[in-house]
Write a structure and sequence with these properties.
Length: 240
């Protein structure tokens, strides 16, 4: 990401963010509500035009070569939106078609994505009738259907029960070896569970960028909640 800026009228949601993520890294994107996490992810994915700066995905500038950049990435948007009247398999088949697959390969991609995200039991169920956790898994399935080298996942475990959280984290870790993965989360335990690195942003600015262990050392208590509070509010927790 090179100098990403997003302004909405007088409000600066993202204020000159630059960073790199390499294959093999799972970067946790942390910050309070309204910090600019989703806006940054939308710009990385070419969903929202930056006011300034750009994102380069596997050598493709998302503004200059949007199709090549989008081919290299999978994106789970905030809230995992999908077409509610489609069935799980119908939606994933539609996505496979959009991604350019045809014939047997198209069917294989759908079956594989459903297996990875454990969607088989809701194959023919309309998405609007799925529980929140299953909807999120449909969102994940469409993001990884084309096995992209880059995954941008906006709160991938939001709304999942503890067992589903465990499964999704396991899946992210299993994919991490050869992909660059960015996840946003409010759940700090997720940083320990899956991230090799974490960034804390607030008011659109980068405040910390380190390994989970490095971040812990910022608070005397070594507790990530305390680190988050200290970095984003400047307040040191008294019982630290
Ligand atoms: N389309 C828009 N128009 C105006 N302001 C917007 C728009 N989208 C986002 N914002 C504002 O930009 C800021 C950053 O929002 P963003 O959704 O990126 O934060 P976030 O870190 O993802 O928050 P959360 O953790 O609550 O999801 C917020 O103040 C938000 O109100």
């Amino acid at each position: 990401m090179r100098g990403l800026v997003k302004r909405f009228g007088p409000k600066t949601a993202v204020d000159d963010l630059s960073f790199e993520v390499s294959a093999g890294e799972v970067l946790g994107f942390l910050g309070p509500n309204g910090a600019g996490k989703s806006t940054t992810m939308k710009m990385i994915c070419g969903f929202l035009a930056p006011t300034a700066g750009t994102a380069v995905i596997c050598g493709h500038d998302v503004l200059e070569e949007p199709i090549a950049a989008k081919r290299a990435l999978g994106y789970l948007p905030e809230g995992a939106p999908a077409y509610p009247d489609m069935t799980t398999v119908g939606f994933l088949d539609f996505i496979a078609g959009v991604r350019g697959y045809d014939g047997a390969e198209r069917r294989e991609r759908v079956v594989e994505a459903m297996a990875k995200t454990r969607l088989e039991e809701v194959t023919h169920q309309p998405i609007e009738t799925l529980s929140k956790g299953f909807k999120r898994r449909v969102g994940l399935a469409q993001a990884l259907l084309h096995d992209p080298p880059v995954l941008i996942l906006d709160e991938p475990t939001d709304g999942l029960d503890p067992n589903q959280k465990f499964e999704v984290r396991k899946l992210i870790k299993a994919m991490a070896a050869d992909k660059a993965i960015v996840i946003s989360t409010h759940i700090l335990e997720e940083v320990d569970a899956v991230c090799s690195r974490a960034m804390i942003i607030a008011r659109g600015r980068l405040l910390a960028d380190d390994t989970p262990e490095g971040l812990r050392s910022l608070a005397a208590s070594r507790n990530l909640d305390d680190v988050f509070r200290q970095v984003t509010t400047g307040e040191v927790t008294s019982n630290a």
